[in-house]
Specification:
alpha+beta; three-stranded antiparallel β-sheet; 39% helix; 16% strand
Length: 219
């Protein structure tokens, strides 16, 4: 689990407590508000940054991002990235006569998965977010010897035609996935700038909130 932590250094905390010493819970209120405002903005920035890295819709990326808010009893916050590997079908999967082509990273070229095919699954084959039952599959046998990708009928129809289905098509199916959102976020070249930007943004939001509280307190 990856989480860009939003923290306030001790010197800034001391300054805030000094400035708001005459305001009941003033320092805590300023910090909680600043952290939550920063976390909300950081989540949006993380989603946009990952959308530049992954060949995946920003909406799907956002489904695996969440914010842990600060409160008066816990003055800390985090932007969390959690979830299962994203179905490969969502990375621009295209069916060809030889297999399925996909492109996971925007910086990479499309790659061919020989003998893979795109088809709807049943039962628990839905993606982790429940958005689709269509996935990229391949058979678990020796794919170097398999013929062209093809999905034969399943269930009762499969049993009725079982004797007519070539042996190479009777191997168990395996659903293919790409990376987890949190694994991409954890890359140093991504998480580093995200944390640095969140720290700067927190300082700015905290300063604004302190000024706002002082203005209201003094009338």
């Amino acid at each position: 689990m990856t989480e860009p932590m939003i923290k306030i250094n001790k010197s800034d905390l001391a300054d805030v407590e000094s400035l708001l010493s005459d305001v009941k819970n003033g320092a805590t209120k300023a910090m909680v508000t600043a952290i939550n405002t920063t976390a909300k903005t950081t989540k949006v920035q993380v989603r946009k940054r990952l959308a530049k890295e992954l060949n995946l819709k920003a909406k799907r990326i956002g489904q695996d991002l969440s914010v842990e808010k600060a409160n008066y009893s816990k003055v800390s916050g985090a932007v969390r990235a959690t979830g299962e590997p994203v179905g490969l079908v969502q990375f621009g999967a295209r069916q060809t006569q030889r297999g399925v082509t996909t492109k996971v990273l925007k910086s990479s070229s499309r790659s061919l998965l020989k003998h893979a095919f795109i088809a709807k699954g049943k039962g628990k084959s839905s993606s982790a977010d429940g958005s689709t039952k269509t996935h990229v599959w391949w058979r678990s046998g020796d794919r170097s010897k398999l013929p062209a990708p093809k999905r034969f009928p399943t269930g009762k129809r499969a049993m009725a035609n079982w004797d007519n289905i070539p042996r190479d098509y009777k191997y168990p199916l395996e659903r293919l996935t790409g990376p987890r959102i949190e694994d991409i976020l954890a890359k140093p070249q991504i998480i580093g700038p995200v944390q640095a930007n969140a720290g700067n943004l927190l300082t700015q939001n905290l300063a604004k909130k302190v000024v706002d509280i002082l203005r209201r307190h003094r009338g």
